[in-house]
Amino acid sequence: MFRYLKAAFWAAPEVAGLGRLPVNLLLLAGFAILGFGHPGFWLLGMALEGSYLYALTSSARFQKVVDAQGRQLGESAAERQRQVLVSKLEPDARGQLEKLMIQCARVLQIESEAQTEETILAGNREALRKLAWLYLKALVARQNLRALGNGEPELRRQIEILRCEAQADRLSRSLRESKAATLRILEKRLANTERREQTLAEIESGLTRIQAQVDLAVDNAGMRGDSGMNFVNIELVSQLLDDSIYGESGDSIAALERRFGGESH
Q1: Domain-wise residue ranges, the chain
Q2: Which long-range contacts (CB under 8 A, 24 or more apart) does 104-109 make?
Q3: I need a labelling partner for 66 at 20 to 30 A (CA). Which of 11, 77, 120, 194 fits?
């Protein structure tokens, strides 16, 4: 209720030739000035203000307008944050995303021109939005993993050397234990590197599948004005993408997940 009260108090309707004016504040200021001449205007102003605020905040229509404005502001902020993620992508990745977005827009354009039923169009718009968000997340994850570098050949070389040294008879017990401990650390790093390469391969496959799905949607829409997106499982690579895989962008992606990856509101 407080947000409705706040919106009513600061309401600034559009006035022809004058733009938006905070009418409520201007009237309050007028009664405040008149009150210095006669205190009765202060009481009258307070009574009128109370009636105005009660009537407006109790209006279902006004509440819907305030709710819609709140959603619009939230969507604008989310879109700006999404654009920040896009700006951090390397040029090739941004090009991939741009191509996918153009194809998604093409699907919706074809369906709209074919006068596709609104419920189907809305469902396909939501499915494409989620696909584009999943694609962006995959691009961010891929870039972060690539930035870690590929040290597998060097790790294998170091492991082989340590294994040979650890078997030498001339080593003292303490030195042998030290080398064995180092070897275990390197083997764990190698296992992490191998998982990284496997995850990269899976992400690349997921990106290709998403692009192919959108291309198919364009083809289907062009042939019959119906992309069929509502019948597609769009959770293609999301199971691969836990929060830790995004690096410094993890917090932003987690904050945007409900807006772009969840149900629309």
Answers
A1: 59-261
A2: 104/128, 104/129, 104/131, 104/132, 104/214, 106/218, 106/221, 107/214, 107/217, 107/218, 107/221, 107/227, 107/229
A3: 120
